[in-house]
Protein backbone atom coordinates (compact mmCIF):
# COMPACT_ATOMS: atom_id res chain seq x y z
CA UNK A 1 0.00 0.00 0.00
CA UNK A 2 1.35 3.39 -0.94
CA UNK A 3 1.92 6.20 1.53
CA UNK A 4 -0.99 8.12 -0.02
CA UNK A 5 -3.46 5.57 1.36
CA UNK A 6 -4.44 6.88 4.76
CA UNK A 7 -8.13 6.23 5.38
CA UNK A 8 -9.31 2.64 5.10
CA UNK A 9 -12.80 1.11 5.38
CA UNK A 10 -13.51 -2.58 5.97
CA UNK A 11 -17.04 -3.73 5.14
CA UNK A 12 -18.22 -6.98 6.71
CA UNK A 13 -15.86 -6.15 9.56
CA UNK A 14 -17.71 -8.41 12.02
CA UNK A 15 -17.23 -11.49 9.84
CA UNK A 16 -14.63 -14.24 9.87
CA UNK A 17 -12.05 -12.58 7.63
CA UNK A 18 -13.11 -8.99 8.29
CA UNK A 19 -12.66 -9.12 12.05
CA UNK A 20 -9.13 -10.48 11.77
CA UNK A 21 -8.09 -8.30 8.85
CA UNK A 22 -9.26 -5.31 10.87
CA UNK A 23 -6.71 -6.12 13.57
CA UNK A 24 -3.89 -6.40 11.04
CA UNK A 25 -4.79 -3.15 9.29
CA UNK A 26 -5.18 -1.19 12.53
CA UNK A 27 -1.87 -2.48 13.80
CA UNK A 28 -0.13 -1.40 10.60
CA UNK A 29 -1.92 1.88 9.81
CA UNK A 30 -3.23 2.99 13.21
CA UNK A 31 -6.65 2.40 14.75
CA UNK A 32 -8.04 5.83 13.90
CA UNK A 33 -7.24 5.32 10.21
CA UNK A 34 -9.19 2.06 9.76
CA UNK A 35 -12.98 2.23 9.88
CA UNK A 36 -14.94 -0.93 10.65
CA UNK A 37 -18.34 -1.16 8.93
CA UNK A 38 -21.05 -3.82 9.22
CA UNK A 39 -24.79 -4.27 9.70
CA UNK A 40 -24.06 -5.72 13.15
CA UNK A 41 -21.77 -4.53 15.90
CA UNK A 42 -18.30 -5.96 16.32
CA UNK A 43 -18.36 -8.99 18.63
CA UNK A 44 -14.89 -8.35 20.05
CA UNK A 45 -14.70 -5.56 22.67
CA UNK A 46 -11.05 -5.01 21.76
CA UNK A 47 -12.03 -4.27 18.17
CA UNK A 48 -14.84 -1.96 19.28
CA UNK A 49 -12.38 0.07 21.31
CA UNK A 50 -9.45 0.10 18.89
CA UNK A 51 -10.94 2.32 16.19
CA UNK A 52 -14.05 3.86 14.61
CA UNK A 53 -17.15 1.89 13.64
CA UNK A 54 -20.19 2.63 11.46
CA UNK A 55 -23.34 0.60 10.91
CA UNK A 56 -23.46 0.15 7.15
CA UNK A 57 -25.75 -1.77 4.82
CA UNK A 58 -23.79 -1.97 1.56
CA UNK A 59 -27.03 -2.35 -0.41
CA UNK A 60 -27.87 1.27 0.56
CA UNK A 61 -25.75 3.39 -1.76
CA UNK A 62 -26.57 6.69 -0.08
CA UNK A 63 -25.55 5.34 3.34
CA UNK A 64 -22.32 3.94 1.94
CA UNK A 65 -21.35 7.17 0.19
CA UNK A 66 -22.18 9.27 3.24
CA UNK A 67 -19.82 7.16 5.35
CA UNK A 68 -17.06 7.44 2.73
CA UNK A 69 -17.43 11.23 2.69
CA UNK A 70 -17.69 11.56 6.46
CA UNK A 71 -14.51 9.60 7.09
CA UNK A 72 -12.63 10.73 3.98
CA UNK A 73 -12.14 7.09 2.93
CA UNK A 74 -9.63 6.38 0.14
CA UNK A 75 -9.37 2.56 0.30
CA UNK A 76 -12.05 -0.11 0.81
CA UNK A 77 -11.72 -3.77 1.72
CA UNK A 78 -15.15 -5.07 0.75
CA UNK A 79 -15.79 -8.28 2.71
CA UNK A 80 -19.55 -8.03 3.26
CA UNK A 81 -21.18 -11.07 1.62
CA UNK A 82 -23.72 -13.86 2.02
CA UNK A 83 -21.80 -17.15 1.86
CA UNK A 84 -22.57 -20.37 0.01
CA UNK A 85 -24.83 -22.39 2.32
CA UNK A 86 -26.69 -19.34 3.62
CA UNK A 87 -27.04 -18.09 0.06
CA UNK A 88 -28.90 -21.26 -0.93
CA UNK A 89 -31.33 -20.63 1.92
CA UNK A 90 -31.98 -17.06 0.78
CA UNK A 91 -30.91 -16.50 -2.85
CA UNK A 92 -32.59 -13.11 -3.11
CA UNK A 93 -30.64 -11.77 -0.13
CA UNK A 94 -27.41 -13.22 -1.54
CA UNK A 95 -28.02 -11.45 -4.84
CA UNK A 96 -28.83 -8.16 -3.15
CA UNK A 97 -25.78 -8.14 -0.88
CA UNK A 98 -23.24 -9.78 -3.18
CA UNK A 99 -24.23 -8.10 -6.46
CA UNK A 100 -25.89 -4.82 -5.56
CA UNK A 101 -23.55 -4.29 -2.64
CA UNK A 102 -20.49 -4.86 -4.82
CA UNK A 103 -21.86 -2.55 -7.52
CA UNK A 104 -22.40 0.15 -4.90
CA UNK A 105 -18.82 -0.23 -3.68
CA UNK A 106 -17.43 0.05 -7.21
CA UNK A 107 -19.61 3.03 -8.09
CA UNK A 108 -18.58 4.73 -4.86
CA UNK A 109 -14.92 4.05 -5.65
CA UNK A 110 -15.37 5.55 -9.13
CA UNK A 111 -17.32 8.61 -8.02
CA UNK A 112 -15.04 9.41 -5.08
CA UNK A 113 -11.77 8.55 -6.83
CA UNK A 114 -10.72 5.96 -4.28
CA UNK A 115 -7.13 4.77 -4.54
CA UNK A 116 -7.76 1.04 -4.23
CA UNK A 117 -10.50 -1.52 -3.56
CA UNK A 118 -10.21 -5.15 -2.44
CA UNK A 119 -13.09 -7.52 -3.32
CA UNK A 120 -12.49 -11.22 -2.64
CA UNK A 121 -13.85 -13.95 -4.86
CA UNK A 122 -14.06 -17.66 -4.07
CA UNK A 123 -13.58 -21.17 -5.39
CA UNK A 124 -17.39 -21.11 -5.54
CA UNK A 125 -16.92 -19.29 -8.86
CA UNK A 126 -16.06 -22.67 -10.38
CA UNK A 127 -18.58 -25.39 -11.25
CA UNK A 128 -18.93 -29.05 -12.28
CA UNK A 129 -17.55 -28.37 -15.78
CA UNK A 130 -14.38 -26.83 -14.34
CA UNK A 131 -11.32 -29.12 -14.18
CA UNK A 132 -11.33 -30.22 -10.54
CA UNK A 133 -7.63 -31.02 -10.16
CA UNK A 134 -5.08 -28.21 -10.46
CA UNK A 135 -7.90 -25.91 -11.52
CA UNK A 136 -6.32 -23.40 -13.93
CA UNK A 137 -6.46 -19.62 -13.67
CA UNK A 138 -8.36 -19.26 -16.94
CA UNK A 139 -11.09 -21.87 -17.04
CA UNK A 140 -14.83 -22.56 -17.29
CA UNK A 141 -16.89 -20.60 -14.74
CA UNK A 142 -20.35 -22.15 -14.51
CA UNK A 143 -21.21 -22.30 -10.79
CA UNK A 144 -24.37 -23.98 -9.56
CA UNK A 145 -24.91 -21.89 -6.41
CA UNK A 146 -26.18 -18.32 -6.14
CA UNK A 147 -23.04 -17.49 -4.15
CA UNK A 148 -20.87 -18.73 -7.02
CA UNK A 149 -22.96 -16.87 -9.59
CA UNK A 150 -22.53 -13.63 -7.66
CA UNK A 151 -18.79 -14.19 -7.33
CA UNK A 152 -18.33 -14.71 -11.08
CA UNK A 153 -20.36 -11.57 -11.75
CA UNK A 154 -18.30 -9.71 -9.14
CA UNK A 155 -15.03 -10.72 -10.79
CA UNK A 156 -16.23 -9.58 -14.20
CA UNK A 157 -17.67 -6.36 -12.83
CA UNK A 158 -14.43 -5.55 -11.00
CA UNK A 159 -12.37 -6.15 -14.13
CA UNK A 160 -14.77 -3.93 -16.07
CA UNK A 161 -14.19 -1.08 -13.61
CA UNK A 162 -10.43 -1.54 -13.93
CA UNK A 163 -10.56 -1.38 -17.74
CA UNK A 164 -13.36 1.18 -18.19
CA UNK A 165 -12.87 3.55 -15.27
CA UNK A 166 -9.27 2.91 -14.12
CA UNK A 167 -10.46 1.91 -10.64
CA UNK A 168 -7.72 -0.17 -8.98
CA UNK A 169 -9.70 -3.24 -7.89
CA UNK A 170 -7.97 -6.39 -6.61
CA UNK A 171 -9.11 -9.74 -5.28
CA UNK A 172 -8.46 -13.48 -5.06
CA UNK A 173 -10.53 -16.64 -5.27
CA UNK A 174 -10.34 -17.79 -1.66
CA UNK A 175 -10.48 -21.47 -0.78
CA UNK A 176 -12.07 -22.49 2.52
CA UNK A 177 -10.66 -20.33 5.33
CA UNK A 178 -9.87 -21.89 8.72
CA UNK A 179 -9.63 -19.72 11.83
CA UNK A 180 -9.75 -20.04 15.62
CA UNK A 181 -10.99 -16.50 16.15
CA UNK A 182 -14.51 -16.57 14.73
CA UNK A 183 -17.13 -19.35 14.60
CA UNK A 184 -18.33 -20.88 11.30
CA UNK A 185 -20.25 -18.41 9.16
CA UNK A 186 -22.45 -20.45 6.84
CA UNK A 187 -19.95 -21.73 4.29
CA UNK A 188 -19.66 -25.22 2.83
CA UNK A 189 -16.03 -25.47 3.94
CA UNK A 190 -16.87 -24.46 7.51
CA UNK A 191 -16.76 -28.09 8.67
CA UNK A 192 -13.00 -27.56 8.77
CA UNK A 193 -13.50 -24.92 11.47
CA UNK A 194 -16.24 -26.63 13.48
CA UNK A 195 -14.34 -29.92 13.63
CA UNK A 196 -11.57 -28.35 15.72
CA UNK A 197 -13.98 -26.86 18.27
CA UNK A 198 -15.83 -30.15 18.64
CA UNK A 199 -12.57 -32.11 18.88
CA UNK A 200 -11.49 -29.97 21.82
CA UNK A 201 -14.93 -29.82 23.47
CA UNK A 202 -16.37 -33.29 22.92
CA UNK A 203 -13.72 -35.37 21.09
CA UNK A 204 -16.27 -36.17 18.39
CA UNK A 205 -17.76 -34.47 15.37
CA UNK A 206 -20.48 -35.20 12.82
CA UNK A 207 -19.39 -33.91 9.43
CA UNK A 208 -21.91 -32.72 6.83
CA UNK A 209 -19.63 -33.82 3.97
CA UNK A 210 -18.44 -37.27 2.87
CA UNK A 211 -15.17 -38.48 4.32
CA UNK A 212 -13.46 -38.38 0.90
CA UNK A 213 -14.52 -34.85 -0.11
CA UNK A 214 -11.28 -33.11 -1.06
CA UNK A 215 -11.39 -29.31 -1.04
CA UNK A 216 -8.81 -26.49 -1.13
CA UNK A 217 -8.26 -24.80 2.24
CA UNK A 218 -6.18 -22.04 3.78
CA UNK A 219 -5.26 -21.07 7.33
CA UNK A 220 -6.25 -17.56 8.36
CA UNK A 221 -2.69 -16.20 8.79
CA UNK A 222 -2.03 -17.07 5.15
CA UNK A 223 -5.35 -15.55 4.12
CA UNK A 224 -4.47 -12.26 5.80
CA UNK A 225 -0.98 -12.30 4.34
CA UNK A 226 -2.40 -12.82 0.85
CA UNK A 227 -4.68 -9.79 1.19
CA UNK A 228 -1.91 -7.52 2.44
CA UNK A 229 0.58 -8.71 -0.18
CA UNK A 230 -1.83 -8.32 -3.07
CA UNK A 231 -2.90 -4.83 -2.00
CA UNK A 232 0.74 -3.77 -1.71
CA UNK A 233 1.77 -5.22 -5.09
CA UNK A 234 2.93 -2.98 -7.91
CA UNK A 235 -0.08 -2.44 -10.18
CA UNK A 236 2.11 -2.60 -13.27
CA UNK A 237 2.96 -6.24 -12.49
CA UNK A 238 -0.67 -7.35 -12.37
CA UNK A 239 -2.07 -8.92 -15.52
CA UNK A 240 -5.05 -10.19 -13.51
CA UNK A 241 -6.94 -8.10 -10.99
CA UNK A 242 -9.93 -9.46 -9.04
CA UNK A 243 -9.78 -13.16 -9.90
CA UNK A 244 -6.45 -14.57 -8.75
CA UNK A 245 -6.48 -18.30 -8.02
CA UNK A 246 -5.16 -18.85 -4.49
CA UNK A 247 -4.04 -22.10 -2.89
CA UNK A 248 -2.36 -23.35 0.26
CA UNK A 249 -3.46 -26.96 0.98
CA UNK A 250 -6.09 -29.50 -0.05
CA UNK A 251 -7.44 -32.28 2.16
CA UNK A 252 -10.49 -34.42 2.91
CA UNK A 253 -12.48 -34.54 6.18
CA UNK A 254 -10.99 -37.99 6.82
CA UNK A 255 -7.45 -36.68 6.39
CA UNK A 256 -8.15 -33.75 8.70
CA UNK A 257 -9.65 -36.10 11.31
CA UNK A 258 -6.56 -38.30 11.09
CA UNK A 259 -4.31 -35.29 11.63
CA UNK A 260 -6.38 -34.25 14.66
CA UNK A 261 -6.03 -37.77 16.09
CA UNK A 262 -2.26 -37.29 16.18
CA UNK A 263 -2.96 -34.77 18.95
CA UNK A 264 -6.27 -36.17 20.34
CA UNK A 265 -6.01 -39.96 19.85
CA UNK A 266 -9.61 -40.76 20.88
CA UNK A 267 -11.21 -38.20 18.58
CA UNK A 268 -14.08 -39.74 16.57
CA UNK A 269 -15.65 -38.38 13.39
CA UNK A 270 -18.78 -39.61 11.62
CA UNK A 271 -20.15 -38.47 8.28
CA UNK A 272 -23.74 -37.52 7.51
CA UNK A 273 -23.73 -35.53 4.23
CA UNK A 274 -26.45 -32.94 3.75
CA UNK A 275 -27.29 -30.41 1.00
CA UNK A 276 -23.79 -28.95 1.24
CA UNK A 277 -22.35 -32.13 -0.28
CA UNK A 278 -23.69 -31.18 -3.72
CA UNK A 279 -22.10 -27.75 -3.37
CA UNK A 280 -18.74 -29.26 -2.43
CA UNK A 281 -18.93 -31.72 -5.33
CA UNK A 282 -19.15 -28.79 -7.76
CA UNK A 283 -15.94 -27.20 -6.47
CA UNK A 284 -12.26 -27.92 -7.24
CA UNK A 285 -10.15 -30.40 -5.30
CA UNK A 286 -6.90 -28.49 -5.88
CA UNK A 287 -5.95 -25.12 -7.36
CA UNK A 288 -3.22 -23.90 -9.71
CA UNK A 289 -2.20 -20.49 -8.36
CA UNK A 290 0.82 -19.89 -10.59
CA UNK A 291 -0.48 -16.45 -11.66
CA UNK A 292 -0.58 -15.17 -8.07
CA UNK A 293 2.89 -16.56 -7.39
CA UNK A 294 4.31 -14.96 -10.53
CA UNK A 295 2.54 -11.58 -10.48
CA UNK A 296 2.77 -10.70 -6.78
CA UNK A 297 4.92 -13.34 -5.11
CA UNK A 298 2.24 -15.37 -3.34
CA UNK A 299 3.52 -18.20 -1.14
CA UNK A 300 1.66 -19.81 1.82
CA UNK A 301 3.33 -20.57 5.15
CA UNK A 302 1.01 -23.29 6.56
CA UNK A 303 0.33 -26.88 5.52
CA UNK A 304 -2.18 -29.30 7.09
CA UNK A 305 0.13 -30.45 9.91
CA UNK A 306 1.25 -26.95 10.92
CA UNK A 307 -2.28 -25.57 10.79
CA UNK A 308 -3.75 -28.44 12.83
CA UNK A 309 -1.12 -28.13 15.54
CA UNK A 310 -1.64 -24.38 15.87
CA UNK A 311 -5.45 -24.58 15.88
CA UNK A 312 -5.53 -27.23 18.59
CA UNK A 313 -2.93 -25.45 20.70
CA UNK A 314 -4.92 -22.22 20.71
CA UNK A 315 -8.35 -23.80 21.25
CA UNK A 316 -7.13 -26.15 24.00
CA UNK A 317 -5.62 -23.20 25.87
CA UNK A 318 -8.80 -21.21 25.40
CA UNK A 319 -10.92 -24.04 26.77
CA UNK A 320 -8.69 -24.32 29.85
CA UNK A 321 -9.25 -20.61 30.42
CA UNK A 322 -13.02 -20.97 29.99
CA UNK A 323 -13.05 -18.87 26.81
CA UNK A 324 -13.99 -21.42 24.16
CA UNK A 325 -16.99 -19.53 22.81
CA UNK A 326 -18.71 -21.71 20.22
If you had to describe this structure to a student in words, what would you say it looks like?
This protein is of the alpha/beta class. It has two domains: 8-175 and 220-245, 3-Layer(aba) Sandwich (Rossmann fold); 177-217 and 249-283 and 303-320, UDP-galactose 4-epimerase, domain 1 (Alpha-Beta Complex). 43% of the residues lie in helices and 14% in strands. The chain has helices spanning 16-29, 45-49, 61-70, 84-89, 91-111, 146-165, 191-201, 220-232, 253-261, 276-281, 290-296, 304-320; strands spanning 8-11, 34-38, 53-55, 75-78, 116-118, 121-122, 169-170, 172-174, 176-178, 204-207, 215-219, 244-245, 249-251, 268-271. The protein has a six-stranded parallel β-sheet with strand order 3-2-1-4-5-7, with helices on both faces. It has a three-stranded parallel β-sheet with strand order 6-8-12. A three-stranded mixed β-sheet has the order 9-11-13. α3 packs across α5 (91-111), α5 (91-111) packs parallel to α6 (146-165) and α7 (191-201) crosses α12. It is globular, with a radius of gyration of 19 Å. The mean pLDDT is 95.
Amino acid sequence: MTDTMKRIMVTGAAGQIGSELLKVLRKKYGGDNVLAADIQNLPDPELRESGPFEFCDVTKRDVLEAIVRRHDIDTIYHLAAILSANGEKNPRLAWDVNINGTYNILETARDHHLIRVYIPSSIAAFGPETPREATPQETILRPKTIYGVTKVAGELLADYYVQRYNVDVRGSRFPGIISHETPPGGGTTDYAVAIFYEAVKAKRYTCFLRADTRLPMMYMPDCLKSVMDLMEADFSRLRHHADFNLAAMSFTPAELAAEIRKHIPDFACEYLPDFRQAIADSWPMSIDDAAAREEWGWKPDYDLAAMTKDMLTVLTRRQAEGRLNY
